[in-house]
Amino acid sequence: MLVSVIITTYGASKFLSRAIRSVQNQTFKNVEIIVVDDNNQGSEERKKTERMMIPFLKDNRVKYIKHQFNQNGSAARNTGLSAAHGDFIALLDDDDIYFPNYVQKAIDLLLLNTSCYGVCFSVARLYRNIITHIQYYEKGSIVSMKDMLIGAAIGTGSNIFLRKEVLEKVGGFDTSFKRKQDLEFMLRVVKSFRILYDDSILVIKDISNVRRINYINNRDALELFNDKFSDEIFLLSEEECEQYYKKQYSFLLQIAIDSADRNYITESVQNLFRYDSSCSSSLRFFSLIKSRIASSIKYGFGNRLYSMFRYIKNLYSVRRSSDKTLHIANEELRELLKVCQSE
């Protein structure tokens, strides 16, 4: 059996080596690692990525594919899928990490549960080398449409492990989506195939490298998504439907606030009002005030001060946490990072 792990990268060369090593160090060794470089040709980030990839190309399991220009995440993943030869397909973001037994555990579960065509594990969220939160999933449960629309979904696009038959039926990623690519793809998957949840913590999502999110891209992607999956949304109960829209437009409001753009904030607040009757006019006032503060301290010393405060807060929260699993995960993480971050 061969497993194809597709790692797409854009603007994160400093994290990429860690992701690749986490695959090289899997206990299951028969893997091909397909790195798709979506940076623009000739850009500084492309040059950094090319230099970083040189030692990894000595491993004949590693393939390095370069786009001539940035085509977005969906297209990059499709490039990787086209080059994959594995019996199983796994996706990994360039700043995320697998625990060493991720691939072996996924294969074992799918061989044991022959009616299932994919598996999603519990996800640890990492901030500056500290696991601050774990998204748990119930062992043996099946991913549903409701999970994808209003639940915890799959936690990250790095939590996708599928039999190759799935791709043969549903196809690849929809390149018209600049955002919500993973959600769109997995909704099509769970409509046709049983995908298994497992409670093992085997995927690490690093949120330290979160880039500033584009409001327009997210708003347009949400409109496109709502149109494409209108039938699935309609099948939700009235309460669930309201919950879905509140979740989506609350997230869009947060992006608008981070952008510090008054027009975006006003638009997103108005959209949220349509689905959340508990909102009041004070929300708009608070959002505008917060946006002004955000725009003034977002960069420079203010940003460094905020980052330091967030780091201390997360460290304190972990030490005070009663979740023993969280402490164990951080101990395992320290050992993993020694290997994945070594030269």
Outline the structure in words.
- α1 packs across α14 (324-340) and α10 runs antiparallel to α11.
- Helix content is 52%, strand content 18%.
- It folds into 2 domains: 3-210, Spore Coat Polysaccharide Biosynthesis Protein SpsA, Chain A, CATH 3.90.550; 215-297, no CATH class.
- Strands 1, 2, 3, 4, 5, 6, 7, 8 and 9 form a 9-stranded mixed beta sheet that branches.
- The protein is an alpha/beta fold and 343 residues long.
**H-E string:** EHEHEHEEHEEHEHHEHHHHHHH
CATH architecture call of the largest domain? Alpha-Beta Complex
Oligomer: single chain
Mean pLDDT: 84
Cα-atom radius of gyration: 20 Å
- CATH-defined topology of the largest domain: Spore Coat Polysaccharide Biosynthesis Protein SpsA, Chain A
Report strand %: 15-25%
